[in-house]
Write a structure and sequence with these properties.
Blueprint lengths: L1 E4 L4 H7 L6 E5 L2 H10 L6 E5 L5 H7 L5 E7 L4 H5 L25 H7 L2 H12 L4 H14 L5 H11 L2 H6 L5 H12 L5 H10 L1 E11 L2 H14 L20 E3 L9 H6 L7 E7 L1
Parallel strand pairs: 1-2, 1-4, 2-3, 4-5
Antiparallel strand pairs: 5-7, 6-7
Length: 284
């Protein structure tokens, strides 16, 4: 049995599953589910679930599945979402400020930008985007929305560009990249539940089963790395104790001490793969 979170690699995985196996495709984006159904229309061993991978235990319970042999978590925004202009994920195309992976949810980027307090916006930009000019950007967002609501990606990009000195814009790529990442993470709650999701995914594995997690930025990768270390049985005792008393159990072992990154050929073929990192954990 195989569990799959995300539609991006569905065809490749389905081809590798034997006729006795089962593929479960989970995605919060209903359009991604529909795309996977079209790709896999010739396969009869696929179950599609429109849900969030954070709900992994409930999903399996509802499917009456106790354990699975493998899980692939493909985190973050997909190329399809970035390329669909009306979704509002891209700072390169003008669209309504949306950024929802799940269109059925109510919180949008427009609400974050126009209703959050200045200090909260600054904190989000700094923590989720590692944006050094977070306070200036937040201040200018609040100033702009006092005149009129900020409704489009273009309007937000213009505010960001005015907030960052030109010399930094040249050095560090597109000035809106970090802000858009931060707002997207806030809208879709991508980081806060991640470490717990990793733990629950490992608990859902059968002995010898593996969790493969693909991340696309440092915040995701750090959370996954920490969760893997914790699951492997990291001692939490104070360093001055002569021996371990915490009894922190080990759920398995980390297969990849360092993340696997795309080869040069793949990076040349797909520039978006350059930031991808794969980490693997094996259940005991």
């Amino acid at each position: 049995m195989e569990l799959f979170g995300g539609a991006g690699h569905s065809l490749e995985i389905a081809k590798k599953i034997s006729c006795n196996g089962r593929l479960i495709g989970i995605d919060r984006d209903e359009e991604a589910i529909n795309a996977a159904k079209e790709k896999l229309k010739d396969f009869q061993n696929v179950t599609y679930v429109h849900d969030n991978h954070d709900n992994i235990k409930n999903i399996l319970k509802n499917l009456e599945i106790e354990k699975v042999d493998g899980i692939l978590l493909d985190l973050g925004v997909s190329s399809y979402q970035l390329d669909e202009r009306e979704r509002g994920f891209s700072y390169m195309q003008e669209a309504d400020l949306d950024m929802r992976m799940d269109k059925s949810q109510t919180l949008t980027a427009k609400e974050v930008v126009n209703s959050y307090e200045e200090a909260t916006i600054a904190k989000i930009l700094y923590e989720y985007g590692e944006e050094k000019f977070s306070r200036t950007i937040a201040k200018n967002i609040v100033k702009a929305r006092e005149i009129k609501p900020i409704e489009t990606t273009k309007e937000l990009v213009e505010i960001i560009e005015k907030s960052i000195p030109k010399k930094y814009q040249v050095k560090e790529g597109h000035p809106a990249k970090r802000t858009f990442q931060a707002i997207r993470i806030e809208v879709n709650d991508e980081i806060k539940p991640l470490e717990n999701t990793i733990k629950e995914c490992i608990e859902c594995l059968a002995p010898g089963g593996r969790l493969c997690t693909i991340t696309f930025h440092s915040l995701e990768d750090r959370a996954v790395k920490n969760a893997y270390i914790e699951a492997s049985g990291k001692c939490t005792c104070p360093p001055d104790l002569p021996y371990c008393v915490c009894g922190n159990p080990s759920l398995g072992r980390i297969i990849t001490r360092k993340p696997i990154i795309p080869k040069e050929e793949e990076q040349e073929e797909n520039s978006r793969s350059k930031s991808a990192k794969l980490r693997i954990f094996e259940k005991r």
